[in-house]
Amino acid sequence: MTTLTKTEDTPPPTGPEGFLSVRDLSVRFATEDGVVKAVDGLSFDVERGRTLGIVGESGSGKSVTNLTILGLHNPHSTTIDGEIVFDGKELITATERELEQLRGNRIAMIFQDPLTAMSPYYTVGRQIAEPFRKHTGASKQEAWNRAVEMLGKVGIPNPAQRAKDYPHQFSGGMRQRAMIAMALVCDPDLLIADEPTTALDVTVQAQILDLLKDLQQEFGSAIVFITHDLGVIADVADDIMVMYAGSAVERGSTDQVLRAPRHPYTWGLLNSMPRLDSDLSAALAPIPGTPPSLLNPPSGCRFHPRCTFQDRVGGNRCVTERPLLGADRSSACHLTTEQKRSIFIEEIRPRLG
């Protein structure tokens, strides 16, 4: 039997506080093989003008969390519990009509692959103009002018002409810029970016990240940035939440999490990243094992089957007791604060350089 224990002195969040507040969110999918526990007891806040980076391996629940915020799930096979409050509005109980008024207007999303997210049958300009017309009541000409303006803002050369092109006529980087223009056309208050740079080369990736930061300063949007790459997160995020197997295992400011991480999973992510100043022949240090099946997640701490530090805790606690994340700067791990500090300083940091 698994019991739940808090591992930090600070209590978990208890009510809506941020511009976007997620409280004890659980998302389950019914499948032929059983119930997938995609998100389990997740809580976090995002403030206006700040960027929250959500990082973790594939299958950790990052994208499911943000699709749930937008209400983009199958209501017939999905069970959702908890609270999602956006600017005082509860989203889980919102009607489809209410969600449609928010999507693309006050909340927008940049998808990972714009080639599949954009229609091949309509010009780029029309696809950017359409949500602006829908949400503002602008005329066709006004909406088209706005689309051209936004293409210019995201750095598309000759935007008046390129707006007439179709997605397949754009390069990968230009398509991603067009997707950002579409997301920002209505000046959203919250922008969700789902691994928007994964398929891009390093140079274009850096351009997109700089573009997002510049546009955030201009529009003042809150951003939720999803990625599996801590290197990317370091460039864009004010705060970081690390997810594993449907739950948050560590949370804090970007500086706190990257300079003094407290969870063995975060240590593993950092340790598996290549370094520019390292020996090119040196092997990377991957996290042992594989992420668990969310049909039947491990008891106790979900990371314990892959954790090399559970013997430091003593007894069978990592297997039987599930550690919970506290508020603010915290990590869900049974190691004591002093143990975490000592292990990081003496064993982890020397490997990171």
Automatic annotation (TrEMBL):
SUPFAM superfamilies, per database record: P-loop containing nucleoside triphosphate hydrolases (SSF52540)
The record's PANTHER family line, in alphabetical order, gives:
DIPEPTIDE TRANSPORT ATP-BINDING PROTEIN DPPD, OLIGOPEPTIDE TRANSPORT ATP-BINDING PROTEIN APPD
Q: Where in the cell is it found?
A: Cell membrane
Q: How does it sit in the membrane?
A: Peripheral membrane protein
Q: Which organism is it from?
A: Streptomyces rochei (Streptomyces parvullus)
Asked whether the keyword Cell cycle is assigned, the reply is no
The UniProt entry, under NCBIfam families, shows: oligo_HPY
Name of protein: ABC transporter ATP-binding protein
All residue ranges annotated as the ABC transporter domain in the record = 22-270
Per the annotation, which location comes first and is thus the protein's main one?
membrane
Q: Looking at the record's lineage, which domain of life comes first?
A: Bacteria
Report any one BP term from Gene Ontology.
peptide transport
GO CC annotation: what is one?
A: plasma membrane
Q: Which PROSITE patterns match?
A: ABC_TRANSPORTER_1 (PS00211), ABC_TRANSPORTER_2 (PS50893)
Keywords linked to the UniProt accession: ATP-binding, Cell membrane, Membrane, Nucleotide-binding, Transport
